[in-house]
Amino acid sequence: xxxxxxxxxxxxxxxxxxxxxxxxxxxxxxxxxxxxxxxxxxxxxxxxxxxxxxxxxxxxxxxxxxxxxxxxxxxxxxxxxxxxxxxxxxxxxxxxxxxxxxxxxxxxxxxxxxxxxxxxxxxxxxxxxxxxxxxxxxxxxxxxxxxxxxxxxxxxxxxxxxxxxxxxxxxxxxxxxxxxxxxxxxxxxxxxxxxxxxxxxxxxxxxxxxxxxxxxxxxxxxxxxxxxxxxxxxxxxxxxxxxxxxxxxxxxxxxxxxxxxxxxxxxxxxxxxxxxxxxxxxxxxxxxxxxxxxxxxxxxxxxxxxxxxxxxxxxxxxxxxxxxxxxxxxxxxxxxxxxxxxxxxxxxxxxxxxxxxxxxxxxxxxxxxxxxxxxxxxxxxxxxxxxxxxxxxxxxxxxxxxxxxxxxxxxxxxxxxxxxxxxxxxxxxxxxxxxxxxxxxxxxxxxxxxxxxxxxxxxxxxxxxxxxxxxxxxxxxxxxxxxxxxxxxxxxxxxxxxxxxxxx
Length: 504
Ligand code: ADP
Ligand code: ZN
Description:
This protein is an alpha/beta fold and 504 residues long. It has 20 helices and 17 strands. The chain has helices at 2-5, 12-22, 37-47, 59-71, 85-96, 113-120, 152-155, 170-179, 209-217, 230-242, 256-267, 301-308, 329-337, 342-360, 365-372, 398-410, 417-425, 430-434, 451-463, 481-487, and strands spanning 27-30, 51-55, 76-79, 102-105, 124-129, 161-165, 186-189, 197-203, 222-226, 247-250, 273-276, 289-294, 318-324, 392-396, 467-469, 477-479, 494-498. The chain has a seven-stranded parallel β-sheet, with helices on both faces. A six-stranded parallel β-sheet has the order 8-13-12-9-11-10, with helices on both faces. A two-stranded antiparallel ribbon has the order 14-17. Strand 12, helix 12 (301-308) and strand 13 (318-324) form a beta-alpha-beta unit. Helix 2 packs parallel to helix 3 (37-47) and helix 16 packs across helix 20. It is elongated. Adenosine-5'-diphosphate binds at residues 7, 10-11, 14, 31, 33-39, 285.
């Protein structure tokens, strides 16, 4: 380990996995991104006779891995569609004559008879399945190509098979073990806690000022701003450039050349900020990313964890800031509703509701994240999330909540947030006049607060299930049981007002 990789010592999970593989056992390992997975199989690959097959989903990832392994003197190669016929046959010859320790392959190879025949005629030490959750429909990144991997025990009988993933819930774990037909695998779940990351959720404000002021705190540091759409990536990158930030866009709609150049510029610290869709980051090992900002709602807790996980890989402090507004939800819903596969749609809805609870709740963010991955965080206060750091001011807003709830009741639960707010702040517009809402007792009683305050209060009441919101194009608000109790003064509302009063 020391001679090849130059590390002083193993991380605890690494040593266990290496020993299991050397003993010929199947392995199922859940390790967070940056947990040091490569060593777990590269070391046994060097020590065992024959070549280890590593199945990896991304061509770009393979090349980086091979370059990294070769830099450590490991005899590594990859086989995928980016190679021409001559290059491919050179790799195959090297495999057959036993000149390789590691061979990275794309999953679809296992569906090819001639590839399987070749494996039978070569000496293979073990099979490593990277991103193994791709084999599960329950995972967040199902790839049908991965199903071909269940033939491995037949094609390569008697060798250890190891599945690695960074994101497996219990259900996905069982699915992986079953589909890959792992035999009594050694199961390892490394901790997902990233102690050097600070998690913050802030209410997202419309306009560009909020993002700009956050980025100013990070002047001269590297970071990623994630946005959902290509258009918003372009717009945000252009806006930041105009304001003098060294920023570049990254998304799958850019041509290959520009994408690669922008990525390289970021990795080489020629720009500070990369504004990107989720297309950015897979397999990028930039160690000094100091912040990851989600300017839009991530699509699931897994993706949030993955994307924030790209910060602070050097172990130094880094911050993860999620800008959240309840008004982002309908935008995500729009895409989900367009999904044709009903099962896929349900899963997406489920992921969305979990990520919304994460952002809306007032519990320790770290605890919620670790809970999600089935891990119990041992302390009450993590001292590095917005909630534990007390960045929130707790204000008694029972009276205001009652105003809103009674506005809902007095308008027969037939209106949405915007109109209810107009009533409370006493706006005079056509809709108010048409419905005679300016004659309601609640008209204008909330004008001491601005619209933003009311929006936040509604978000919070929805998150704590005091108020429900109907489906559809014009969602209407209605009271739930806890809302009725608040109205009868049997329950109080302590509103978490996320303030910008201090920063971490
Ligand atoms: P993963 O593939 O799990 O995302 P890597 O294998 O790329 O992670 O490792 C992440 C980082 O941790 C790399 O920069 C690597 O050099 C470093 N690393 C891995 N194992 C050790 C170790 N035992 N001691 C010190 N650093 C390590
Ligand atoms: Zn915390």
